[in-house]
UniProtKB/TrEMBL annotation:
Keyword DNA-binding: yes
UniProt KW Protein biosynthesis keyword: no
DNA-binding region extent: 34-53
InterPro entries for the chain: DNA-bd_HTH_TetR-type_CS, Homeodomain-like_sf, HTH-type_TetR-like_transc_reg, HTH_TetR, MftR_C, Tscrpt_reg_TetR-type
PROSITE patterns: HTH_TETR_1, HTH_TETR_2
Transmembrane intervals: none
Annotated HTH tetR-type domain residues: 11-71
Name this polypeptide is given: Mycofactocin system transcriptional regulator
Sample GO molecular function, one term: transcription cis-regulatory region binding
Length: 197
């Protein structure tokens, strides 16, 4: 374990853990990489990892709580005179903009999340969290409850449209994610139609 001049363990970061983990996932596969492996590669103890991520399954999702907080801000910042479908459309596209120099890359992150069987059950929980953000926004805009039919419909359809764009993006190295999301999310108006507010 790395130590400082005073003999204390050197602090790590979410980013350092993610980078070390993704290197191991690429070399060994997700299922064959243990938390002990990641701890060794990061230079910290296993217990320290749990201060940053609750489980190995959480590492591919990064700091998802913060990204969802940002998603809420994007939705709340949409002009109130925008039709509902357009507000959700714009926020989803903006939410999925990531810097090209991100490490691990957004493409590597999403490929791991979407193609790793061991992550499927955990991903269902994360998708539910993502849908809840949209449902809350739609409920607020329409004077309904988040669990009502319309907010849930918009949330589920939005996730399906985004996932369709991601699958197309991962299958084509030359594709632009933002363009695919923009085109996919445009279908939302067909689901909301003239009833959008």
């Amino acid at each position: 374990m790395r130590t400082s001049a005073r003999g204390r363990p050197v602090a790590t970061s979410h980013a350092a853990i993610e980078q070390a983990a993704f290197t191991l996932f690429t070399e060994r596969g997700f299922a064959s990489t243990t938390l002990d492996d990641i701890a060794r590669a990061t230079g910290v103890g296993r217990r320290t990892l749990f201060r940053y991520f609750e489980s190995k399954n959480d590492i591919p999702w990064g700091r998802f709580d913060l990204t969802l907080a940002g998603f809420r801000e994007l939705l709340a910042g949409q002009p109130r005179d925008l039709p509902l479908h357009e507000a959700v459309h714009r926020a989803v596209v903006a939410f999925n903009r990531f810097p090209g120099d991100a490490r691990p890359s957004h493409r590597d992150r999403m490929r791991l999340i979407l193609t790793t069987p061991e992550l499927e059950a955990h991903s269902v929980l994360r998708y539910a969290d993502w849908r809840a953000v949209i449902a809350e926004y739609v409920a607020e805009r329409t004077g309904t409850a988040p669990g009502d039919l319309r907010p849930q419909l918009v949330a589920h359809v939005s996730l399906a449209l985004a996932m369709t764009a991601y699958e197309a993006w991962l299958s084509d190295a030359d594709a632009e994610l933002e363009d695919l999301l923009d085109r996919s999310m445009a279908a939302l108006r067909d689901h909301l139609g003239a009833a959008s507010s």
